[in-house]
């Protein structure tokens, strides 16, 4: 698979929707993830990321303007022991709760489907990072309708054992703007992962469409120690 420029992928697509990137830093020392949200409606854009005890959550930037919390208020990132869960919806909690009961990432996601937002049937995209004792692996998943037909839920899981230095994978909800929005197709895209969290955060934020971007979260986890460093960028301020 050809390695793509993540910056070019984002600047060329005005509406990739929500996106997850997972990989390993170029120096091989950090497990890396990024998650962002975008929005076209006032309700979708009226959000910020805030930190929680075990990750982050979305909140209304202006609670008085929140019209429908369904599908937009959730915890995108939660940590369960040595596992970091990253998703675009409340399946974060499903994965957390069922893996805490000794089920696998795939088993947990078998209880869920794409989002109930006809006619888009937005895919549920998820990732899990496992960092333990100097080792690191990750997996990504997408649950989507069959080319817009909700009668069938297609389930794909991609696993990456001992990922290569400077290499990551990128998955997002939409191929581009449209009505209905066209779901992501294919396997996660192969992209470069740098060493510097601030440079990576800046590249992602500046590459996302100015009108549609809402919030960005980036985390680098030291593979040897498990210590995490995070960045949050919100377009809107919480009132």
What does this structure look like?
The chain has 239 residues and is mainly beta. The chain is built from 5 helices and 13 strands. The protein has helices spanning 6-11, 42-45, 91-99, 105-109, 197-207, and strands spanning 19-24, 30-38, 47-52, 55-60, 77-80, 83-87, 124-132, 135-146, 149-161, 167-172, 189-192, 213-222, 228-234. The strands form 2 sheets. It has a 7-stranded antiparallel beta sheet with strand order 3-4-5-6-7-8-9. The model has no long low-confidence stretch (mean pLDDT 97).
CATH topology: Glutamine Phosphoribosylpyrophosphate, subunit 1, domain 1
Largest sheet properties? 7 strands, antiparallel
* Rg from Cα: 17 Å
CATH architecture: 4-Layer Sandwich
Report the count of strand segments.
13
The amount of helix comes to 10-25%
> Please, how many helices?
5
Domain count: the total is 1
Mean pLDDT: 97
Low-confidence stretches: none
Q: Could you give the distance between the termini?
A: 45 Å
Characterize the overall form.
globular
Beta fraction: 35-45%
Which structural class is indicated by helix and strand composition?
mainly beta
Helix and strand pattern: HEEHEEEEHHEEEEEHEE
CATH homologous superfamily title: Inosine monophosphate cyclohydrolase-like
Adjacency order of strands in the biggest sheet? 3-4-5-6-7-8-9
What is the CATH first-level class name? Alpha Beta
């Amino acid at each position: 698979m050809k390695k793509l420029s993540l910056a070019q992928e984002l600047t060329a697509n005005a509406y990739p929707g929500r996106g997850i990137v997972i990989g390993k830093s170029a120096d091989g020392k950090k497990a890396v993830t990024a998650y962002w949200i975008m929005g076209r409606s006032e309700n979708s854009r009226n959000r910020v990321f805030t930190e929680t005890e075990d990750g982050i959550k979305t909140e209304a930037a202006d609670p008085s303007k929140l019209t429908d919390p369904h599908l937009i208020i959730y915890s995108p990132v939660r940590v369960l022991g040595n596992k970091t869960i990253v998703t675009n919806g409340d399946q974060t909690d499903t994965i957390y709760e069922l893996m805490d009961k000794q089920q696998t990432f795939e088993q947990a996601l078998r209880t869920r489907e794409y989002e109930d937002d006809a006619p888009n049937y937005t895919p549920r995209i998820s990732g899990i990072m496992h960092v333990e004792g100097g080792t690191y692996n990750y997996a990504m998943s997408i649950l989507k309708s069959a080319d817009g037909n909700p009668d069938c839920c297609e389930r794909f899981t991609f696993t990456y054992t001992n990922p290569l230095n400077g290499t990551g994978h990128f998955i997002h909800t939409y191929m581009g703007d449209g009505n209905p929005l066209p779901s992501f197709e294919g396997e996660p895209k192969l992209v470069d992962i740098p060493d510097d969290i601030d440079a990576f955060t800046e590249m992602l934020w500046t590459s996302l469409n100015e009108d549609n971007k809402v919030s960005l979260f980036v985390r680098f986890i030291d593979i040897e120690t498990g210590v995490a460093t995070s960045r949050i960028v919100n377009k809107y301020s919480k009132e």
